[in-house]
Design goal:
alpha/beta, 9-stranded mixed sheet, 3-stranded mixed sheet
């Protein structure tokens, strides 16, 4: 049985079991889900930076799911394709993943059903160095210890919408409680990222958050999956546009008509609040449920 080992434990999140649980608990306790959550949650969008920066927003989405559904059979996790350049979504379709919290099994039945549709291909190797899915897995292990996962890398192409729609159909026929998670950060602004269309300084960072990020978030809330792909390509406001669009397309297929923004922040705000420092660079983070 193939097992994917963690590659960013000890970097993006703690590498030891006890320290990992302690930081998970801290992330979960920092934010409380809104009382106005939808009756059912079928999908979400989460960030994937280091937990010190975006872990509380990722935790907020998983906590919201837990608040509405005590038991989840599986999570489909759509990941950003940072280093995967294939045109077709790539599935880790058998075996397991490990984190400092132990092993979590792949939902092989769900994987096979998806691969059979040709909307994605089996390609476990492509997941070896990608962090955008890995940083979500401990939240699932901690809050939903019996859940399986289905990791899928999603390029920012129209294939993402086809994938999400296909997954939504499979889920609707499965009889299982399955939630889709799209993993993306938002605008990477500043000299470090080579993206400074509004120059540098406080007003430029404010534009990145209030204007550039907001355009992508609004399209997600409106469930405009195709528009999200176009928007990200034109304005560089999501590094995992395919992953987010797939989650939206799946939610739409499952009957959802709008999203709910639970929280938004950016790395510069976190640095100012938590560390008393600021930066010329910033990355946006959003927590959304459907």
């Amino acid at each position: 049985m193939q097992t994917r080992k963690p590659i960013v434990a000890g970097q993006f999140y703690p590498g030891g079991h006890n320290s990992c649980v302690a930081e998970l608990t801290d992330c979960i306790e920092k934010r409380t889900p809104s009382k106005s959550l939808p009756e059912t949650i079928v999908a979400g969008i989460v960030p994937h930076a280091g937990w010190a920066f975006s872990g509380s927003l990722a935790a907020l989405v998983f906590s919201a799911v837990k608040q509405r559904h005590e038991k989840i059979d599986a999570f489909v996790i759509f990941g950003a394709a940072h280093a995967y350049f294939g045109r077709t979504p790539a599935v880790f379709d058998a075996g397991s993943w490990t984190t400092p919290l132990g092993e979590v099994l792949i939902d092989e039945e769900l994987a096979q059903a998806l691969v059979d549709t040709k909307a994605a291909v089996s390609d476990p190797q492509s997941h070896r160095l990608e962090h955008s899915i890995e940083v979500q897995v401990p939240f699932i292990q901690h809050l939903f210890p019996d859940a399986k996962i289905l990791p899928i890398l999603v390029p920012p192409t129209n294939a993402a919408v086809t994938l999400g729609t296909t997954i939504g159909h499979i889920i609707s026929q499965s009889g299982k409680r399955i939630v889709c998670i799209g993993s993306t950060d938002l605008t990477h602004y500043g000299p470090r990222y080579g993206f400074t269309p509004m120059g540098a300084g406080i007003e430029a960072l404010k534009w990145a958050s209030d204007v550039n990020d907001r355009k992508f978030i609004d399209l997600a809330l409106e469930m405009a999956a195709d528009g999200m792909l176009v928007e990200a390509a034109e304005n560089a406001n999501a590094c995992g546009a395919g992953a987010a669009a797939a989650a939206v397309a799946a939610a739409k297929k499952l009957g959802k008509t709008q999203g709910l923004l639970l929280a938004y922040t950016n790395s510069n705000e976190v640095m100012q609040r938590e560390m008393g420092a600021s930066s010329t660079d910033s990355v946006g983070y959003a927590a959304i449920v459907f």
